[in-house]
Structures are given as structure tokens and as C-alpha cells.
Amino acid sequence: MPPTVVRGYVYRPAWTLDGRPAAGPDEDAFTLAATALEGLLASAPADPLPGVLRLVGEFPEVSEWGFAPLLGRPVRVVHDGEGPSGLAAALRPSEDALVVAVDLPERGEDSRSAEGALAVAARLAAEGPSGPDETARPGTGTGAEAALALAASAVGGWIDHPRRPGRLTLDAHRLRAAVEAPTRVVAEGALVPRARYLESLPSRWRLVAERCPRCAATTFPARGACARCGERSGLVPFALPYDGGTVVAATAIGPGGQPTEFDAQVAAQGPYGVVLVALAPAVHATFAVTDAAPVRLALGTRVGTRLRRLYPMEGEWRYGRKAVPLPSGDQPGPSAAGGSHGAPTQPE
Amino acid sequence: MSLDKTIRKATEVGHRAAIVGAGHTRFGALDAGPRALLREAIDRAVASVDRGMDRSRIGEAFVATLGFGGWQIGNVAAVVAEEAGLPGVPVTRVENACASGGFALLAGVRAIETGAADLVLVAGVEKMTDVTNARRRYWLGVSGDTEWERSAGLTFAGVYGLLASRYLHDHPEGQDALAAVAVKNHENGALNPNAHFQKRITREDVGRAPRVAEPLGLYDCCPVSDGAAAVLLAAPEPAKSFTDTPVFVEGIGAASDRLAVQARDDLVRFAATRRAAEAAFRHAPFDRSAIALLEVHDCFTIAELLALEDLGFAGPGGAAALTLSGATARSGRLPTNPDGGLKAKGHPIGATGVSQVHEVFLQLRGAAGPRQVPGAERALAHNVGGAGASATVALFQRG
Question: CATH number of B2-131+224-398: 3.30.465.10, 3.40.47.10, 3.40.50.2000, 2.40.33.20?
């Protein structure tokens, strides 16, 4: 049996390098995959989702355990290696799976994993199912991207995430400096020890809040007690929308105004924005701004949130959500990656 | 009322304690270490008592300090006993971030009120310029919401920058008022020999300064300073043996709010300040119209505008017009921060709340020299910890 794909989603970063999509300084394979997953789920919620996630490409260690807290459910992660052979393994017809393939060519990785996935999608759309050996055919992608396939029983549509006008650019040297230098830095920050970081992941990564059964107030982040009335039992956890916020306060942090753990970022990229976002009535959350120029957003701007690297601490990257301005007004229609079966709904 | 539900019950006391002495070091980047600073402030407080004071009569002491840089983060109390010459006297260290001094005063007033001691020393100290820039920024962040707001890239400048953006969005005239606060407080600081900054600046200087956390620039921020301050509190009867003109604490209130600004309903009001002020005025024998001068917590220029509104001296957005009208200048009807405030005088964290009381003591006794507010008889001091997470308000009257 040849591989079949029911749905796909392509995420291309907002940054460009020599005209090609390039991962921003706070992105890596894990965050690209996370954004693609969220895009897929938002565009076409599937129930039930396959319980297996197959990874194709070079992924950081967090990928071994990070997808379960991101998705809020158990998931078995299988790493199938890189490139065409990895993709062929991931698209095994015997098992339903979420397949995510990531390319980061500007990081010196040339695995053509996502590119291969796009090629498969293109061929499936044009010709119908055939053998997994076809995965080596060149696709349409040449830069950083994450292609996510929900492998199951029928050929379906692929959609591109909507892009904003005015792409951001980085020169290669600065990009590399920004990305690689912080991994060698030991942050002298106000320490959030690993245990506290891990226990807060539902709120950090999925924006989980709690609704009080007594006074109906929403408390974010969730902490097992109502912030208004103090109720501690019967609190109902729920995920706030990660794409439906409005900026209610905004600043831009200039050199010297940042916590020390952001020093390398400021040195490489200059000032960064921070916004207070209303995620729901009377529910506010603070996010750094990413993928935006200028970095200081206007009050009232509609923003979504994306999982990104925050800063290195205790020998690992800490991840959390950052705010990105959403496209306003005329959103581009879905452009199927190598096919024409784009889903009608938009993730953003 | 949601304010009552969300804010812990304010601490209230109504009994009078008398300030009979006050001492102050220079504020700034100083050679002296924290021990020497403490000793100098305490010695000056003792020496300031009109009819002299035998320090062995001090029954209890409170010291406010963050322990910045890790200096004596534990057991600073023993250091105070040593430097103050108070062998055997119980000393309690109070740490409520930038409101440590105000809460130390509260503790001292309580000790007098309950009769635990007849004479109490309240001191505050911080040594901030002896650590690297990186460590300084680490320590400046530990009193905020380290787990959420800081991980979004915020220091206190950033948090107040967010608040300022909201205030200016709602009240565009506030932009000029921010600059006016900086200019006014530098004007006052220029007349204060203890101030960190003793030079005047112009609104153009404020506008040209590098942006630290938009819309706030460098001149919207208080400096990082070393310094210490101390006051001596006495019960009403023994106070008479020390001076004919004590300054009485006529009301004092304190309150807490949620640590993170993101957890609050209102971004441009500090509920802790409002609650503390309510509690203080409830017990005072006078109302706001009797206040001749204010010492408010202006760690950033926006904080002075918020304070004027939260303390009840202006309505929402009204602090901008009040400031631009000149009312808060030394010669205005509501002189605010005549000593230069945190903005120009400096902000050695633990010392700040005590320093405000020192200024009130001088002003109400007519001893403030060239920056004297003529005829001032009643004053208010307002101390904030974090971005409104804790606050004290104290009301004073010349005896």
C-alpha cells in the first residue's frame, strides 16, 4: 500500500534569508513543528487525532517529551531520521500518524525533509497514491519550513499558513550569531528552576486557565486557586484561544532595559517588544513580541501567540509563547503546496 | 465590592507614634559600604534629637533592606545592632521590595502602639553600586513576577513602560506630564544636598534621552543608588523628654495586590495604594485637603501620576493636568516630592521608605532649608513595592 495523506499544513517562517524562508532567531525545529501542528489543528480539527507523532528532520532534545504538553494529551513520538529515507519511514501505510517534517537549511542542515514532504503532497495531489520511493522528488520548498502531514487513508488538501505583507529579513551572519551564541551563555537571570518551569507548561504552552465554579472568574495562569475569591476546589481548566488576543499595553525594551537572560538577544537583534494582551474579557497575559517590525505594537493590535525559544537557562532552552501580529483584513487565500486541494478554513 | 475581595485586608493602626529624630546619608554611587552607611544614618538620627537621647533607651529596631547583590541577605539585624550600638536589642529585618521602608515604619509604629517599646529605631539601607551591571539587573528583577512577566522580557522599567503606554493611550496629555515630573523632581533634587542627582534638566533633555522601555526613557527612571536613612519613634509621653516639636504619625495603612500586573483587572490604578490610603485617612484627624506636601513613590515618572490619582488627589487622568498646572511644584498648592523623589534623590531600595519619613520630619519642623515648603504642618508619605504589589501610606502632623 502506498502512503496516503488526508491533510497537510505548511508553515514557512516570517523571516527570509537571500529571498528564501528562514527560521527566526527564536525558532528551531521544535517550534516550527509546534506552529505547523497548531496550524493544522486550527485549520481542520480532527477527532480523534492519531496518537503517534513521527518526526522527520533534525530535532532538539525537547522534542522527545515536549509535544505531549504542547498538545495536552499523550502522544508517542517516533523519530524517523532525516531526508527522503526518514520520510518514507514516517509515511508507512500501516499506521495512522501525525507526520511532521522540518527543514532548517540556514543552520547547515540540508536534509530536505520538509521539501520531500511537500513533494509527496504535490505528487499525491496530482497523480494519486504511489510508492514511498517517490519521496525523493524535489518539491517546492527551498528554505526553512515545517510541513505537517496527517497520514491516513485518503488524499486531501494542503494549505499554506497565511503570510503577512512585508517580510522580515536577516543577514546570514547576524542570524547565525543570534541563534547560536545564546546556547553557550549561562543566563544570570532570576532563576525559574526546571521543576517550576515544567509544572507551568500547560499554562505557558497551551494557555491553560481555570474557571471558578463559585464566582465564574477566570484565573490565568492556572494555579489551583481562584484569583478573585480564593476557591480551591472544582476549578475547571480550559485553554484560552492562542490566536485571539488584543494588545492592551505595549512597550519596546531598549538596551539596558532587558533582564540579563535577554542580553544576547538584544546584542544580536536590538530592541524587542513586550505586550500585555487581553486573551478574554478580564484575562491578561504578558508576551514578548516576535516576527514584527517595528517591534512596538500599537494598542488594539490583534495578535496570535506562537511557541518560541525564550532564553537559555540551566543548560537548555526555555520555551514559551510569544505574540505575533495577525494579518489584518485581506488574508491571502490558501496556496496548496504543490496541489490544489486547499482546505477552505484558515488557521489564523 | 471587588476591590475588597481582591485585596487582602489592609493593616490599620490608629494610635499615635511620635518621630523625634531622623538621619540620612548622601544618596548616590558612594565609596561607603552598607555597614558604614547604616552607622552614619543612625548616628545622625540620634544626634538630631533636640534634647539628646541615650541610645540605650532604644527598645527595639527594624531595618529595611532587600539585601541587594546578596549582601547579608540573611541576618542583617545583627549588623544593625552592632553598628547602632544596641547590644542585646531585638532587631527585625523587613523586606517588602521597594516598600521595605514603609513596612518597617509600620512595624515600628505598631511596636510603639502596643507598648512593646517606648523608643524604636527604624532604619533602611541599600548598597547597589558595588556589583556588576549584570548582577544589578538580576537583583532589580527579583521583586517582580519572575516566572511570567520576566520570562516575557520585562524588568520593572518594562512593566512601568506597559503601564505608561496604557495611561498615555487613555490620556494623551500625559506624555508632557511625564517629562514635567522628571523636570520638577530634578529641580527639587538640585536643592537637596543628599540627592543623587543635584542638577536641573529640561523637557528637551527628557525627550532626547535613550529609550529604556518605551514610552519611558532614561530620564523617566530613578537611578541605582547607595544610601541609608533612619528615624526614631517614641511613644507620646517619652517623646516630650526628647523634643517640643515631634512629628506624629496620625494614620498609617498598608495593603497588598497580586504580584503580576497581568493578574490585575485595572492596569492604571494600584489597588494596594488606594486601599492603604483609605485605611490611613480613616484614622487621621484630617482629610486630604489638609495635606501640605506629598512624598510619593516615583520610581518612574508614570508612577508619580498614578500615585496622585490612587491617593485621591486627582481623578482618572487628572494627574497629568495637575502636574502640568504646576500644582505639584514646591511652590504649588500640592508640593510633591520636594526632596527630589526617587527620581532625583535616588532609590536605595531599603532606604527609600525611611528617607521619605526623614524628609517629612524636616519639612514639618521647618528644617528643610532652601527646599522648605513654607508652613507645612501635615504630610503624606507613599511607598510602593514592585509595580503596585504592596504599598504603604502614612500621614503625619507636626505636634
Answer: 3.40.47.10
